[in-house]
Specification:
By secondary structure, this protein is α/β, with parallel strands linked by helices. Helix content is about 40%, strand content about 15%. The protein folds into six domains: about 110 residues, DNA repair protein MutS, domain I (MutS, DNA mismatch repair protein, domain I, 3-Layer(aba) Sandwich), CATH 3.40.1170; about 130 residues, Nucleotidyltransferase, domain 5 (2-Layer Sandwich), CATH 3.30.420.110; about 140 residues, MutS, DNA mismatch repair protein, Chain A, domain 3, CATH 1.10.1420; about 90 residues, MutS, DNA mismatch repair protein, Chain A, domain 3, CATH 1.10.1420; about 220 residues, Rossmann fold; about 90 residues, no CATH class. Strand 1 and strand 2 form a beta hairpin. It contains 29 helices and 26 strands. The radius of gyration is 37 Å and the shape is elongated. It has a six-stranded mixed sheet, sandwiched between helices. Strands 11-10-7-8-9-12 form a six-stranded mixed sheet.
Length: about 900
Amino acid sequence: MSRSARDTPMMRQYLGIKARHPDALVFYRMGDFYELFFEDAERVAPLLDIVLTTRDRGKPDAVPMCGVPVHSADGYVKRLVELGHRVAICEQVEDPREAAGQRLVRREVVEVVTPGLVGDPESLEATRELVIAAVAPGAPEGSAGLAALEASTGSFRATEVGCESGGELPAALLEELERIGPREVLVPAPSAERLRARIAKRLPGAALTPVDPAIFEARDQRRLGAGAAARAAAAVLAFLEAHQPFALRQTPQLRRYRLGDTMVLDAATRTHLELFESLEDRSRKGTLIDRIDETITPLGARRLMRWVAYPLVSSREIRSRQEAVACLAERDRARARLRGALGGVRDLERILAKVMRPGAQPRDLAALRSSLSALPAVVAAFGEEEPDLLPEGASHSPALALPEPLPEVEQLLFDAIVENPPVVLRGSRGAGETGYIRAGFRPELDGLREVARKGREWIAGLEARERERTGVPSLKVRFHPVHGFSLEVTKAQLGRVPGDYERKQTLASAERFTTSELREMESRVLGANDRAAALEREVFESVRQSVIEQAAGIRAAAEAVADLDAIQSLAEVARRDGWVRPVVEESNLLEIRAGRHPVLEPLLAARTGEEFVPNDTDLDPASTRILLITGPNMAGKSTYLRQVALLVLLAQIGSFVPAESARIGVVDRIFTRVGATDRLARGESTFMVEMRETAEILSQASSSSLVILDEIGRGTSTFDGLSIAWAVAEYLHDTPGLGPRTLFATHYHELADLARTRSGVRNAHFEAREWGEEVLFLRRLVPGDASRSYGIQVARLAGLPPAVLERAREILHNLESEELGEDGRPRLAEHGTAKEGSRGSENPQLPLFGTGAPQSRCEAEVLEELRALDPDRTTPIEALGLLARLAGRLRGGGVAR
């Protein structure tokens, strides 16, 4: 790059700014455009599909450049940030006319937008949070801290977890990071590479930002406290100060929390239960949140999502929220009035975030005024039915508290801002950007406007007066942004121009003139306009700062509206659909009468007109810790498992549930192992995913957990899978201090034998009726085990060719006839120690097909050994070993020993 390309004052200014923000794309303000230069321009042009041009075109040292209009810049910034880039917004911070002819207009970076720090809050999806997080590993206390800030709403929280041996970040902290789902994660630069793989595995779409370790040192321990959580919070605040300092002054108080304060839902559980995203098409349709979201405001929608992600574990707090839901569910007229009043409240949190930005618009203050003016109607919605306010619970379990109106702020905004303020360009400092401060608010401004108005009226009448005086009927008064006001006369009429006219501008077909009188009035009008525009900006900024000083009160009102809206949503669903209030207590019971699936029930009715078949659930550590569910394919096992988990979750967010009655002991975690999925991009097969999820359940579950297992062991060979499923069930039942409430659905009918030796295991199955080739699924859960899966009948329904179905029946008959037990099943229930040498070979399965009568001495010996076997005295391991040896004997022709 030659020196001359950089040697203009503007380029020197730009390069100085770029040097201070080397990792950001600098949007450099020039009039009504943001321009990008050099490498920034070359990177951005193809990403935004805009033209790449050059400054000083044709010269050997031409500077690459591209630009976007100021009025549409937010959309371009959003696209770049979503691609993982940072954008530094560099504004003109003085009026260009103040520097005209003397020096370059002063410019400064007013904010840096990063993947985790919001640009324009209105560009965000209303129901989603945009979070920036910081992770502080290896603190002196031997723990790792996590802090998360949602800058567009002001939510600021932190937690910490003790470190695990051999791991730099605890698995529980990574799990919480995944639940929060930040767009950007700050980590100390020296640890960045070591942490990248672990964090990227949990959050593949998040930006990992290495930062100076020094910013993790808490400067305000009185506010942040001590420990790893405080260090992570300090990093977030330091990053915010460096990139968006305007938001720092009103960041709310840090809320410390423990992971055990709410129910823990890992990623697998959130996915399997389809809480927020459908497995079918990854949309919101068909999810739990879609089913229960009857909120009116974005505030309420986000609050309800937070409740679903963080169910309560305190029965007292759950009952407090239930009381609030019941209060509204029982008052139809009050609830209807409330829903109508909430319609006037816009997104207070994000409007406040916009007001706090340097690019705030008069329209943002008008939007804030509109929402504040709706608060009294929200309070008055109950009328004479207004309930007594419930006792305040914890911050995440608010009572039915009403928002506190802010009449002083509302009145200030009404007095200061006109009803429908005009759009003002971001960072605009030019003349003409006026008209948003209401008349009467500032007498000095009114005076300037009056001077300008009278001047414009005088100029407006000048055209008629001059036409009459000069006799030029086509004379016109013109205005040009640079040249100001003038009298325009066509070339054909120049002979009639009076002697006091002074030539001002020559055009192709006309001349423009001025007079001393016009110059004086022009100076008066334009001067008044300029002073009025400057004063309006000053007044607007003063009002904006006054509003920011009331940010705490505005946020408190927004919090109350969010809680109230979420509660009325749960009440609306409960009342409309006839849901009941569950009894939630500190126990390990789980009793549900006639429970129904909250999402599938209405979908089934809408699609087929069928009624959903309800089912009971009874789990009690004193009698039934594991409900082992067998039954045919398509009978409803998976639906039932998810149904129970969803009813428990609904109960612990304070919602009513679709059932005749429910008594639910508080659950600390819901674990699910459901369905067949793989993670090929991570190098994990379906069976590996299944085993990993199962391992996490066995290592993390407690006696207060709810475990949902669907088809454990189906991803491998039959004997392997059956052995694993059996051992998992035994482990959950027998391990001291474990014994979680467990629903275990399986196609391995052999597992039903567990109920013979394990007092806490009870069998149940879904009924089916068979007429010839037809099978009818009754969807009803009844006691006892099932002996058939009706897989061939389901295959027929799916359209398999008749020849395949017929052959399958033959194979099934052969398999069943070669089983060892009298009832057609291996007897696996007895437990003992395997004899030495009883472990099977690498191919521990029997031949699939019988061949009739023995054809050799070898086969005769095998049959004799089978007849001598006493199944009741054979352990599972011994039986598997024997089968392996006999199979090997038959294959190889040797003697089975």
